[in-house]
């Protein structure tokens, strides 16, 4: 990469903060404007997909726009980023995510530090997170392989869809899950529920890395 590690870490911190700020902030706004959960979820979905397109386009050339430990793990397994770089990437993502929750609270005049009470647990939701993260990582890898310029739109559209076809509303991101445990708002998740989500997300990322690594491998005809 042409950018040094401090700049890449700054981009990962900023990008994850803006992503979580959008997830939490749009969730607060949607919940304020409607008592209909379906309408609120739509109000949460569209801004999340939209900001991903913006952030990946804006910051992708600097850091690769992971904004997600599961994505960083996938690229580490593919040896496209070293372990020595992956560790600070993940730390930057987690820190950025928590800052994003705090900023969202500040914009709406809420307590800056909160602990979520929203229950999100159980095998169906864990399985949904495996599926969601598998699809996200697969979308990224296939996009890079075939149409790298389309990756921002592909990721934004995938997450927009996955909000609605998964039982968990598609966190698909350990840093976002951790950050959402710091908000007792529409987007929250209890801290006690985090291990199940994070484990499922990492499993989905590893399966996707292995499967798409095989699927996308060029082969010569006999």
TrEMBL record:
As for subcellular location, the record says: Membrane
- What UniProt keywords apply to this chain's record, in alphabetical order? Membrane, Transmembrane, Transmembrane helix, Transport
Which Pfam families does the protein's record reference? Answer: MIP
InterPro entries in UniProt: Aquaporin-like (IPR023271), Aquaporin_transptr (IPR034294), MIP (IPR000425), MIP_CS (IPR022357)
Q: Does the keyword Membrane apply?
A: yes
Q: What is its main location?
A: membrane
Gene Ontology CC terms, in alphabetical order: membrane
Q: Which GO terms describe its molecular function?
A: channel activity
Where, by residue number, does the polypeptide cross the bilayer?
A: 9-30, 50-75, 87-106, 126-144, 156-176, 196-216
Its membrane topology is listed as: Multi-pass membrane protein
* Highest rank taxon of the organism: Bacteria
Family membership: Belongs to the MIP/aquaporin (TC 1.A.8) family.
The name this protein goes by in its record: Aquaporin Z
**Gene name linked to the record:** aqpZ
